[in-house]
């Protein structure tokens, strides 16, 4: 499994646009083959801090996602709403199970 995490600061006066872009991106991505999860969160203590968690079945699914037209549209719509860029990190998971 491949997990992608992201973190970004939202411009306060662009928050609604950022959340709308994130909601559309989540819906489009969750419909893709191999997408196990795709969610954005806003911090309870800092409403201008956005987090992203993606889970992909394999690299092929992630590669297809990276080539998807809706990803390009998302980048175009989200970028002006951010205060700086988005820090995105790829994690490859060899094993996953309940903690307890």
Topology of helices and strands:
Elements lengths: L1 E9 L4 H16 L4 E8 L6 E8 L2 H8 L2 H10 L3 E11 L8
Antiparallel strand pairs: 1-3, 1-4, 2-3
Question: Strand-and-helix sequence, N→C?
Answer: EHEEHHE
Shape: globular
Oligomer: single chain
Let me know the average pLDDT: 96
Kindly list the characteristics that best describe this protein.
3 helices, alpha+beta, 100 residues
Could you give a quick summary of the protein structure above?
This protein is an alpha+beta fold and 100 residues long.
How would you describe this structure to a colleague?
The chain has a 4-stranded antiparallel β-sheet. The mean pLDDT is 96. The longest helix has 16 residues. The radius of gyration is 14 Å and the shape is globular. The chain starts with a strand and ends in an 8-residue tail after the last strand. Helix 1 packs antiparallel against helix 3. Strand 2 and strand 3 form a beta hairpin. With 100 residues, it is an alpha+beta fold. It has 3 helices and 4 strands; from the N terminus they run E-H-E-E-H-H-E.
């Amino acid at each position: 499994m491949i997990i992608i995490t992201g973190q970004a600061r939202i411009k306060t006066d662009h928050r609604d646009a950022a959340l709308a872009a994130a909601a559309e991106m989540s819906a489009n991505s969750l419909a893709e083959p191999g997408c196990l999860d795709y969610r954005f969160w806003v911090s309870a203590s800092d409403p201008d801090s956005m987090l992203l968690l993606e889970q992909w079945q394999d690299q092929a699914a992630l590669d297809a996602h990276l080539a998807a037209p809706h990803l390009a549209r998302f980048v175009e719509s989200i970028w002006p709403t951010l205060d700086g860029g988005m820090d995105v990190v790829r994690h490859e998971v060899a094993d996953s199970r309940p903690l307890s």
